[in-house]
Amino acid sequence: MSATLEVAGLETHFVTRAGVVKAVDGVSFSVDRGQVLGLVGESGSGKTVTGLSIMGLVDAPGRIAGGSIKLAGKELVGLDERGWRTIRGRKIAMIFQDPMMTLNPVLRVDTQMIEAIQAHEDVANDVARARCRDALGRVGIPSPEERLSAYPHQFSGGMRQRVAIAIALLHNPDLIIADEPTTALDVTIQAQIIAQVQKLAAETGAAIVWVTHDLAVVSGLSDRLAVMYAGRIIEEGPTAEVLTRPGHPYTAGLLASLPINNPRGRPLNQIPGSTPSLLRLPPGCPFAPRCGACQDDCTVTRPPETRFGMDRRLRCFHPLEASA
Amino acid sequence: MSALIEARNVSKRFAREPDLAAKIAGLFGNVRREVVHALDSVSLAVAPGEVVGLVGESGSGKSTLGRILAGVWEPTGGDVLFDGCRTADLSGDERRKADLAVQMVFQDPMSSLNPRMRVADIIGEAPLFHGVAAKAEVAAYVADLMRKVGLDPSFADRYPHQFSGGQRARIGIARALAVKPRVIVADEAIAALDVSIQAQVINLFMQLRAEFGLAYLFISHDLGVVRHLADRVAILYLGRIVEIAKADELFAAPNHPYTQALLANMPKVETGKHAFAPLQGEIPSPLNPPSGCHFHPRCPFATARCSDEVPALKEIAPGRLAACHLNGP
Amino acid sequence: MSDVAIEAIPAVETPLRRFIADYCANRLALAALVVVLVLALLSLLAPWIAPQNPYDLTQISIFDNMLKPGERSMDGNLFVLGTDEQGRDMLSAMLYGLKMSLFVGAASTAMGLAVGVSLGVTAAYFGGRIDAAIMRLVDLQLSFPAILIALILLAVLGKGVDKVILALTLVQWAYYARTVRGNALVERRREYIEAAQCLALPRSRIIFRHLLPNCMAPLIVIATVQVAHAISLEATLSFLGVGVPITEPSLGLLISNGYKYILSGKYWVSLFPGLLLLFTILTINLVGDHLRDLLNPRLKT
Which of A214, B142, C29, C213 could lock onto B124 through a cystine, CB 3.0 to 4.6 A? Predict the structure, then answer.
């Protein structure tokens, strides 16, 4: 049986006046039913564009230049807008950092949710409304019947995100792309949302791709972790293994720089330099100029993807630890 | 302990003026003027060379307190003291000295820099204006500051949009340093930066503290960063301080139930999936805060007294204050 | 901090240079700009390139009056666009008239801009009563038709180029005040303004060095369109006989002069100044439209 989502060699390019930006440059991963994949990277790493590509939401000047995206075995790359409309919102749902991306500020919540149901299914208004009420209750919104007739601005940030999640879950999608859904929220609210999503994923069996810059958020949530840098996945594997025995110097550097992994008040182990511009990538490994373990061969050719240990993938000529 | 800068019973209220529609409605009935109590009689002091972490969620008033201490906003009630003198009583040169001694570093590295000014002017304007650097020396002065914050001085004639996020953060720090401050109020100064850049900027803050003997009021929602940097930590909830303690004591044994919840919910890099046990309930709106202890609707230990009576901020151990009825009368 | 690698930054690209490059990407707008510049240059050079000085009575012969375009006078002078009822060369009169029109338009816009921007940015920065007072004045100003205010002012003040400019300034400043206030209200909430306050810079410096330059972009658009508006308003006033004096005719006055001959078939006295006026206003508006597209952040991708 094929995985819920299989991405292979995905390339998403943006044509700008200054040149072609390869925002996603050969990304492959797969997510199974009920699994959570943490897609981690800094700004410009291509993590968000990867999510948008899977949703078919890459707009001009961007385009998918190659590779394949298979949802339950069905190829999505090359689908026309009509084809996408049957998939998007129904088979794949997206949760954004800003819930107002999915919510219309001038429409009541029930109007929007019923519309979302009727876009894909032919159901009567009262049936749809009942389903909306259940959906709101399921994401932990108190007194859902009353909240249905409220406008988005009458909700707090955390509650708005819950509404967005409820909308995402309306059609029991096979796959949910969550793009930094808790980044804008407060610590205590963030924990609530993560707990909610965790519970819902277990209940519905949806596969989740959780896009974030925050290793801490996905560490307790995801089954597998994919770390992106300059448009590529540079390390991928089971979350616990990647975090305890990182193979790529970048992953190791990120972990080492977290205050919690440093003695209090001492200088942090920082990664020098800044993320490279995708227009001016160095010829070899894009991380080479910032890498402490950089050797001569790193600056010549791009490291290919290699297997690492039992169940991991890596793009590095000199992995930190010979894996068992 | 003599404080370098101190907020004494500082309150800040924001009144939202009724708009025209509300005014017309007001002709027929009462219109309630919406008043937000951003800060409710808050006292906090920063000693010379000390790093105080100020932690709170949205609506806690942490940015408001930072701006009041930095002199950007005036408090509605209470006093701000610099070196023991009320800043409101100072005027002329003394006021300016007090103003310049407290500088701010902001969250958004883009909007905190004037997009139409070159870096040399952004950093050099204030020292030139206040006579910290003479006109002939200002270029060298700026170059020196740029080197100190890790920027190449040859980029002095560029504009902010030509720099990366981390570099912009450094420009903001250099601008604050340029007037030789003694305290820097850092308002979520690293929150908008990439993970790998955050560590660089935290290190820069620590290095500058050692070099210039700076004190910081480090405002952040990120407990990990605050634990790393701060000597003392103050926790704000809906405009009131609920706990102040030395950082190691606070993180080792949080006293207030809210502090405990914050620590429990702090995202940590953990290995393996685990269930989250979040604190229930929403952060109430500062427009309409709960009675008594603001935290009581979310507090697992709340009693009847908590909803009636505002708990006082009391010393529960030397140098340690908490505002909770659980600590006894 | 020796370990901080400094990323290579593209060569110095000032906001101005980038803007110029963006502007020149549109051919039509570039052509319009070139035409506007050429028109301005021609009008400035009028004393040297015009076939005659239309104000110098010694150069004008009443015997040459109402010659058709392309006709020659008795002493062999060619009048490409004909002459008016006093024997003035229309081409020369138009070049001088264009100069007057452009000068009045540009000067009144510049003055309106100075007054409006200062008041608008002050209103936004201070807020409260100052804001309310200034903006009520703006509302009052904008609630009357511009032409009516200008007519009343000129009726009171009398004729004269300076008075026309003053009247046009007074009818224009409110647009700028309102626009700049809207922008400044947004900009003053940005952190760089707080940073400047924190650095104890004086208010006037914060307003005029920090706040104002960041509110100018939309004003450039309005100012461009307003130059065209001011030119047409001045033409209207002159046509109605309350504008510039007869001794220093603008395009509007030239049109007015020829108006009475149109029905008798002597079209050229009014038509050519009219076409030039139309063409000038059209090209300035084209430039303004393109500036609006460039400077409107909502249209940017």
Answer: B142
Inter-chain touch B276–A43, beta carbons under 8 Å? no
Q: Could you tell me if B58 lies within 8 Å of chain C, comparing CB atoms?
A: no
Residue type, B212: F
Q: Which helix (H) or strand (E) holds A211?
A: strand A207-212
Which among A191, A221, A274 has the least Cβ separation from residue B197?
Answer: A274
Q: How far apart are CA A36 and CA A5, in angstroms?
A: 11
Q: Which residue from C1, C10, C210 is facing B114, i.e. has the nearest CB?
A: C210
Residues 174-233 of A with CB under 8 A from B: 186-192, 194-195, 198, 213-217, 219-223
Contact B158 C9 (CB under 8 A): yes
Which parts of A245-324 are beta strand (E)? 306-308, 312-314
If phi over 0 gives left and psi between -120 and 50 gives alpha, with beta otherwise, what is residue A244?
Answer: alpha
pLDDT digit string (tens) for chain B, length 329 residues: 578 999 999 999 887 666 666 666 666 666 566 788 889 999 999 999 999 999 998 888 999 999 999 999 999 999 999 998 898 888 888 889 999 999 999 988 888 999 889 999 999 999 999 999 999 999 999 999 999 999 999 999 888 888 888 899 999 999 999 999 999 999 999 888 888 899 999 999 999 999 999 999 999 988 889 999 999 999 999 999 999 999 999 999 999 999 999 988 887 777 556 666 777 788 888 888 899 999 999 998 999 999 999 999 999 999 899 999 998 77
C-chain CB neighbours of A290 within 8 Å are: 5
Q: Which amino acid would we find at residue B223? A: L
Question: What gap in Å lies between CA A52 and CA A39, rounded to an integer?
Answer: 13
Question: Locate tokens 């910032």: which residue?
Answer: A290
With an 8 Å Cβ cutoff, is C11 touching chain A?
no
Q: Is C76 on the interface with B (CB under 8 A)?
A: no
How many domains does the structure of chain B reveal?
1
DSSP letter string over B259-305?
HHHHHHHS----SS-----PPPSPPPPTTSPPSSSTTGGG-TT--HH
**Which residues lie below 8 Å from residue C269, measured CB to CB, with a gap of 6+?**
C66, C82, C84, C85, C90, C254, C257, C258, C261
Domains and their CATH numbers in chain C = 15-53+78-299 (1.10.3720.10)
CA distances to A99, A107, A150, A162, B280 from A165, in Å: 9, 17, 16, 5, 18
Q: Which residues pair with B80 in a beta bridge?
A: B7
- Centre a 10 Å sphere on the Cβ of residue B289 and count the other Cβ atoms it contains: 17
- Please give the residue of chain B at the shortest CA–CA distance from C191: B112
Contacts of B100 in chain C (CB under 8 A): 199-200
Helix (H) or strand (E) holding A273: none
The DSSP element (H or E) to which B52 belongs, if any, is strand B51-55
Alpha helices per DSSP H over chain C: 15-24, 27-44, 46-49, 90-126, 128-142, 146-157, 161-187, 191-198, 203-205, 216-239, 251-259, 268-295
Q: How far is C137 from chain B (nearest CA, A)?
A: 18
Handedness of CA A169, A171, A173, A177 (dihedral sign): negative
**Mean pLDDT, residues C236-246:** 83
B112 lies within 8 A of chain C by CB: yes
Q: What's the domain range around B117?
A: 5-327
CATH of the domain at B43: 3.40.50.300
Chains that touch B (3 or more CB pairs under 8 A): A, C
- What pTM did the predictor assign? 0.84
Strand, coil or helix: what is B130? coil
Task: Round to whole Å and give the CA distance between C217 and B168.
Answer: 23
Q: Which residues of B touch A244 (CB under 8 A)?
A: 271
Query: Is C8 in the B-facing interface, judged by CB distances under 8 Å?
Result: no
Cβ of C136: how many Cβ atoms within 10 Å? Answer: 10
Tell me the angle at which helices C27-44 and C90-126 cross, rounded to the nearest 10 degrees: 110
